[in-house]
Amino acid sequence: MSQYRPIYHFMPESNWMNDPNGPIYYQGEYHLFYQHNPDKPEWGTIHWGHAKSKDLVRWTHEPIALYPSIELGEEHCYSGCCVINDEGIPTILYTSIGPGDRNATTGAQLWVAHSLDGMRTWTKSKLNPIVPAHIHGSLRVTEWRDPNVWKEQDGWKMVLGGTSEGKGGALLYVSDNLESWTFQGHFYRSDRDEALWECPHVFRFGERYALIYSPNGPVRYYTGTIGNDNEFVPEYSGIVDHGGWEGYYAATGFVDGLGRRILWGWLPEGARGNDFPVEMNAAGILSLPRQAELKPNGKLGFRPVIELEQLRGECYHRENMLLTGEVMDTGVSGRALELQVDIEPGDNRSSFQMAVLRSADGEEQTTIRADFVTGTISIDRMRSSLFPGTHKSVIQGQLPAGSGDSIRLRIFVDHSVVEVFAGDETCLTTLVYPSRDDSIGVALSAEGSAVHVSRLLIWEMRSIW
């Protein structure tokens, strides 16, 4: 097994994976689908892979759910969703792509498939395509794909992402039966400089909604309401994760049996660069499942699902440490760790630094930095790897309000994956590829004024397989 293959993040046994698709809770089990090329560890001939779990943590690989129907002019089964229809039948709605006029830019179609045997096998409907490309009439729509479906009192609603009249946005469709759809118009059209929206996802929180989307960069969200004209009315905007193409994209989610809104994102591995010297038989990782919550101020909060605590092993525990410019080696090492640190900066002239995947001499390390001077939280990859060509860019976001008094950071390290949660608001995810075998240490330090660490917890993490 490669030293870069995660042990507690989901990924396929081999070959390519990108977007998570259609997560759903059904008959006591969680099902997760994903964009998959079963033939090689690179994009192409997209199928729907499938896995299931009883606890959101440990997964069993299942047979491929959807294959391209080559005989029907289909080359790829692009992203979509899974719901239970009004007859209790699991139903997948997805984007069907083919050659020529069926291309992704102008010829995408919406197809549907059903399962009558507990999601083991799927049959595509003879009614396909249930939504053809010409449904938009005179509206100039391109790159439309990635259906997300939910149920309201007056029927089924669906949004798809794409480009409309040159602007990214989400398009709205309605149906009584999941098979006959009517185009309603724009659900929301971007007010930012975004030419394309992918993977739109809607969560409902009572009378309020969150609209999550991937605009060819960091995954973003709006929260707001839906007006009488069925258009989304935004009240607040934010960022789901600052990783973007360097670590977190194409987020999608579902509502579980406990009413929790849970998200996954795809962790693309472009950070390896073009000449990565280690042969890898798989590409693509999924983030840890995160619970999304609507806060009173209109922002979304994010935290890892509590079930992940099952993976905690031996714990290292320290309290009341005063950090200065001197590097403090914790004595803890590992490639699969969860770290939790409670920080009290004292003033706004300091920054806290935690180095993970650190070599003994510090030549290689990935640095998580909470900078109270600039009010930012970042993952610094400048020294993450000695391999030439690996990406070095810094992933950065804003510290939550009030962080100048105290803040809790939760950091998940899993071989090549680093996920950071600052408070329950700011998330950063990225990929790193240390070259040295001894790049497994953890160290703390501060710059500027001294920083008080009231508590530090580090757990070894067990495998999910």
Automatic annotation (TrEMBL):
Gene3D superfamilies cross-referenced by the UniProt entry: Exo-inulinase, domain 1, Glycosyl hydrolase domain, family 43
Key words of the record: Glycosidase, Hydrolase
Pfam families, sorted: Glyco_hydro_32C, Glyco_hydro_32N
Gene Ontology molecular function: any one: beta-fructofuranosidase activity
Domain Glycosyl hydrolase family 32 N-terminal: 9-300
BP term (GO), one: carbohydrate metabolic process
Domain (Glycosyl hydrolase family 32 C-terminal): residue spans on this chain: 307-460
Enzyme Commission (EC) number: 3.2.1.26
Record-linked SMART domains: Glyco_32
InterPro entries found in the cross-reference section: ConA-like_dom_sf, GH32_Enzymes, Glyco_hydro_32, Glyco_hydro_32_AS, Glyco_hydro_32_C, Glyco_hydro_32_N, Glyco_hydro_beta-prop_sf
Source taxon at top rank: Bacteria
Similarity comment: Belongs to the glycosyl hydrolase 32 family.
Protein's name in the database: beta-fructofuranosidase
Lineage per the UniProt record: Bacteria, Bacillati, Bacillota, Bacilli, Bacillales
